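TEACHING EXERCISE
Course module: macromolecular assemblies
Task: Read the component lines below, then compare them to the predicted structure of the full complex.
Student: A.B.
Group: 4
Components provided:
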Amino acid sequence: MATTPFSSAHRLYVKSLYRRMLKNELDWVVRRDIWRGRALMIRAEFERNRDVQDPRALAQIFEKAEVELAAKQHPDPYIPPAMPGGTKW
Amino acid sequence: MYLSILIFPLLASFVSGFLGRKIGITGSHILTCTCLTISSILATIAFYEVGICGSPVSIYLFSWIDSELMSISWEFLFDQLTVSMFIPVLYISTLIHIYTTSYLSEDPHNQRFFSYLSLFTFFMLLLVSGANYFVMFIGWEGIGVVSYLLINFYYTRIQANKAAILALTMNRVGDMGLSIGFFALFAFFGSLDYSTIFSLASYMNETALTIISLLLLMGAMAKSAQIPLHSWLPGSMEAPTPVSALLHAATLVTAGLYLLVRSSPILEYSPTALLIITLIGSTTAFFAATCGLVQNDLKRIIAFSTISQLGYMVMAVGLSQYNVALMHVVNHAFFKALLFLGAGAVIHSFADEQDIRKMGGLIKFLPFTYTTMLIGSLSLLATPWLTGFYSKDLIIELAFGQYAFSGIYAYILGSLTAGLTAFYSFRLISLVFLTVPNGIKKVYLNSHESNMAVVIPLAILALFSIFF
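Instructor-supplied answer key:
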C-alpha cells in the first residue's frame, strides 16, 4: 500500500466528516436516487481539496466545513432503531 | 348484566396479573380476549336496550362517603351517552387484545401487558358509567395510572421512563384543575351527583358556572391533549403500538371529551366557557396539524393527527354540538385505531423501523396493510361517504353556520386543518407505501404480511371506518 503524507488521525477525521455530510444530506433529501447526485457533489468538493497539505490551510478548510455542516444540520436526524437514541435502544 | 360489563375486564386483569405465572402466556391471552369479547357482546345488548330502545338504567350499590352534607355513593348510570362510549371502548379494546396476541408474541412479559390492558379497559368503563363525578374521577385517575404503567412497559428504557412520567405529571396538572372544579361543584350544588347538579344548573349564577366549567375544562385539556397540555401525547409513542392504538387514539384521550359532553348542562349556561372551548379546540386542531407535517416518525405523525382531531371534537363541544362531537369521538376511535394498528403491522414487518424516510415501496410487500391504512386515511380526511365525512365535515359546516367570531375562527382554522390533514396523511402513505424504496434490502427481503391475529382486527376496523 502506498504511503501518504497524512496521519491516520487525519484520515479518520476526513472520513468522519465525509460520512456526516453524506448522512446529513440523506436526512434532508430522503430519496436515495436524488441523494446520489448530491453525494457526488459533496465528493467533488472533497476531491477539490485532496492535495492540500499545509496544516493551517487544512485547519481553515475543516473549520469552514464544520460550520457549514452545523448550519445545515437536520433537526431530526435519522437514528437506526438499535443505536443510541433509537426507538429500540 | 350491566355491572358485569365492567366486572369481566377487571376479572381478566386480576387473574392475568396475579396468576400470570400459573396460567401462562396462552392462558392470559385466552382469558383476557374471552372476557373482553363477552363484555363487548353485553355492551352491544346494552346499547340496543338503552341507546335504541331508550330505557336507561341506574344502579345504586351502596353509600361510600356520608359526611354531613357530602353524600357520595357507588352508583352507576347507563344512559345513551354511556352506552355510546361503551361501543368504541370495548370493541377496540377487544380487537387490540386479539392483535396483541401476535404483536407481542415474543415478549416475555405478556401477562403483565394483558393485565394492564384489561385494567385500563375496566377503569375507562368505570369512568363512563359513573353516576356522579366522584366515581368518574376514580376511573379518570385509574386510566392515568394505567397509562403510566403501559407507556413505561419497557421500563428498562430511559426514554420510556421519561415519557411515562411526563404523561402522568401533565395529566396531574389537569387533575388539579378538575379536583378544584369538584370542590366548586360541591360548594355550589352540595352534591357531586349528575342528576342533582344538572337539574339545578339552570338556577345557578352564570359566573359560578363559568368558573366551574373552566376548571372542568382544565382537566379535559390535559386528558384530551389540548394546547398547552398536549406535549405528553407524542412522547407517549414510546409505548408498544397496541397501547398507542387503545389509549392514545380511541379511549384515554376521549375521556376529556366525555367529561365535557357529560357536563354539557353546565357548559350550556356559560357562553364564556363555550367561547374559550371553541378557541382552544380550533387552535389545537390547526397547531397539531402543522406539527404533523414535519414529523418523520410513523407513530408521531399519527399522534399529532390524533391531537388535531381531538381539537375538532373540543371545537364541536364549544359550538354546543355535543351529539356531533360524540359522533366524531366514535368515528375517530375506529379509524385512528386502524391507523395505529396498521402502523404497528408495518413496523413489525420492517425490522422495527419507525422512520418513514427509511421505508418506501411497501405496497408490493404489504398490500393488505396498505389497503387498510388507506381506508383509515381516507376516513380521516373526511372522504365523502366514509364515516369520518359525516362527523368531521359536519363540524366544519356547523362552525360556518354560527354567525359569531368564534364560529368564523373555528371555520377558517378547521378548513385549513382539513387541508393540512390531507397533506400529512398522504405524505405518510406516499413515503411508506408508494415512493421508491429507501430502506435496507435485507429488510425488504424479510418483509411480509402479518398473521390472522393482526389481519382480522385490521379488517374489522376497516369495515367500521367505512360503514359504522
